[in-house]
Design brief:
about 20% strand, six-stranded mixed beta sheet, about 375 residues, alpha/beta, 18 helices, five-stranded parallel beta sheet
């Protein structure tokens, strides 16, 4: 694993941390957007290497976590139908809706299948023409091209028993919602490298200028993240607010233009509700009119379902960077991965899941 190891070198990490300490003269609060970055930060103790003046807060960077409870309930209704094969990535199976989750629907006889690609679901539609096949299309810009391709191919091939339940959200509008909030305390961002690999980073430039915050595109390994933090702090200390690409091995300014074109062809920008956060204008993707026959919510007439969040779960505050998981009264008590109150404890990228797994382990073994 030479390629990975070079980005996990402990001595280089300590040198990065020392460099950050050497340029830090005042308190700064930095938010990482991606849940994968959050897990690396907590797993490797990156935040504990930093000077006390630097506070890392965790943003709404887990698409599973921000999928609204209404959409989970829509999925449960559709998946329980006898004529449906319901396909999803694994994380979504345990995300709680109002009363149940997809895992329970499967245990009760629903044909719920774990797949690794929407193209797997499309293949099932070809092989089962007498049944409806629905794919739960959840994700940020990263997964949108593959989901768009499945719908594009279905239309090309005349496959009418395939549809997707769309829960796509977009990163830049979420960042703007955080920055425009009266309670905002974020002064700089680490942008998600995998999102930028698809979409590029031009959309962040007006945000950085309007709100006077530096944005640094970075990856997911410890040295990637420490380098990103260093560059954000350097900008803050120098009074700059620019977009920098510190993940040039994977990201180009305009991203993957073919993937972007496909997304634009199949999807349109819509208002979208984020679980625990609320509706954010123009922050999601929905199918264009010419592809509306592939919209599972319309096909199965479930798009008017409403639901209420748990009042005990504070995941909304966590996703906005206003609280950390271990500041929640339910954390590790009434809310655990086995019995989660909210999606941030279920998802492999959720901040609560990361804290539960890594911070509790270190405390238990005496390493933290």
């Amino acid at each position: 694993m030479k390629h990975i190891d070079e980005y996990r070198d402990g001595n280089r990490a300590k040198r990065f941390a020392a460099a950050i300490r050497s340029i830090t003269t005042r308190p700064w609060t930095i938010m990482e957007i991606c849940g994968g970055q959050t897990h690396s930060i907590v797993r490797f103790g990156i935040d504990e290497l930093l000077p006390d003046e630097i506070t890392l807060v965790h943003g709404p960077g887990c698409p599973v976590c921000v999928t609204p409870i209404e959409l989970i309930d829509q999925a449960l209704v559709i998946a329980a139908r006898k004529d449906v094969i319901f396909c999803s990535f694994g994380d979504m199976l345990r995300v709680p809706g109002s009363t149940d989750d997809l895992q329970r629907v499967r245990a009760d006889g629903g044909d719920v299948r774990l797949v690794y690609s929407p193209m797997d679901a499309l293949r099932l539609a070809r092989e089962n023409p007498g049944r409806e096949v629905v794919f739960f299309a959840v994700g940020f810009e990263t997964t949108a091209p593959a989901n768009a391709m499945s719908v594009f191919r279905a239309k090309q091939e005349g496959i009418t028993n395939y549809s997707i339940l769309v829960s796509h959200v977009l990163v830049p509008p979420a960042m703007e919602a955080i920055l425009s909030s009266p309670s905002n305390r974020v002064q700089g961002f680490l942008a998600a490298g995998h999102v930028c690999a698809v979409m590029g980073f031009e959309e962040y430039i007006p945000l950085a200028k309007k709100y006077e915050v530096p944005v640094v595109v970075t990856g997911f390994e410890p040295l990637d993240l420490l380098n990103g933090i260093y560059l954000v702090v350097k900008q803050l200390e120098e009074g700059r607010c620019e977009v920098e690409n510190a993940y040039s091995r994977a990201v180009r300014r305009r991203g993957n233009e073919q993937a972007r074109d496909l997304v634009t062809r199949v999807f349109r920008v819509v208002h979208r509700k984020w679980r625990g956060v609320g509706e954010i204008d123009r922050s999601g993707l929905g199918l264009r009119d010419e592809y509306e026959s592939f919209d599972a919510a319309r096909k199965f007439d479930v798009d008017d379902l409403t639901a209420e969040e748990s009042i005990e779960c504070v995941s909304g505050l966590i996703l906005q960077g206003l609280k950390k998981p271990d500041q929640c009264d339910a954390f590790g008590g009434t809310c655990t991965p086995e019995h989660p109150l909210g999606a941030t404890m279920v998802s492999a990228e959720g901040a609560c899941s990361a804290y539960y797994r890594y911070r509790r382990e270190r405390k238990r073994t005496g390493d933290g």
